[in-house]
Write a structure and sequence with these properties.
- InterPro entries: DUF1844 (IPR014995).
- By secondary structure, this protein is mainly alpha-helical.
- The protein is built from 5 helices and 2 strands.
- A two-stranded antiparallel ribbon has the order 1-2.
- A hairpin with a 5-residue loop joins β1 and β2.
- α2 packs antiparallel against α3 and α3 runs antiparallel to α4.
- The model has no long low-confidence stretch (mean pLDDT 89).
C-alpha cells in the first residue's frame, strides 16, 4: 500500500491530501481567519500568564507573548474590512484585552503606542 498519491502537478502527496484539500476548500475565508486569530489569542494568553492552573506562571513568556500579540494585531487590522464588523469587533476586543494584560504583566512598561501590536492598533492606554 502506497503512502503517497500522485497530484496533478506530479508531486507525491501524502494519502488523504486530496481529501484535505477538498475539505479546506469548503471552509469560508472568514472561518479560517477567525480560527487563526483564536489560536494566536489562546497562545498569547498562555504566554501572558493567563492560563488556568497552578503552573500558569511557568508558561509565562512575555517575549513570546509580544510576538503573538503583534501577529494577531496585524491579522485583525488587515482582515477587518473583509471579515465584517461582527467578526472583527470580537477579535478587536480580544486583542485589546491581551494588549492590556501584557501591559499589566510587564515589569518594565512600554511607552504608549510601543506595546505589542500597537503600531497596528494605536495605543491601548
Amino acid at each position: 500500500m502506497s503512502t503517497t498519491d500522485e497530484t496533478p502537478t506530479g508531486i507525491d502527496a501524502p494519502v488523504g491530501a486530496d481529501q484535505a484539500t477538498r475539505d479546506i476548500a469548503e471552509v469560508a475565508a472568514v472561518e479560517v481567519i477567525t480560527t487563526a486569530a483564536v489560536h494566536l489569542m489562546s497562545a498569547a494568553a498562555v504566554k501572558c500568564g493567563l492560563a488556568e492552573g497552578p503552573d500558569a506562571e511557568e508558561h509565562k513568556d512575555l517575549d513570546e507573548a509580544r510576538k503573538l500579540i503583534t501577529a494577531l494585531a496585524a491579522l485583525v487590522v488587515a482582515s477587518a474590512p473583509d471579515i465584517g464588523n461582527q467578526h472583527a469587533r470580537s477579535l478587536r476586543d480580544g486583542l485589546r484585552s491581551l494588549q492590556l494584560a501584557f501591559r499589566e504583566a510587564s515589569v518594565i512598561p512600554d511607552e504608549p503606542g510601543e506595546g505589542p501590536g500597537e503600531k497596528y492598533t494605536g495605543s491601548v492606554v
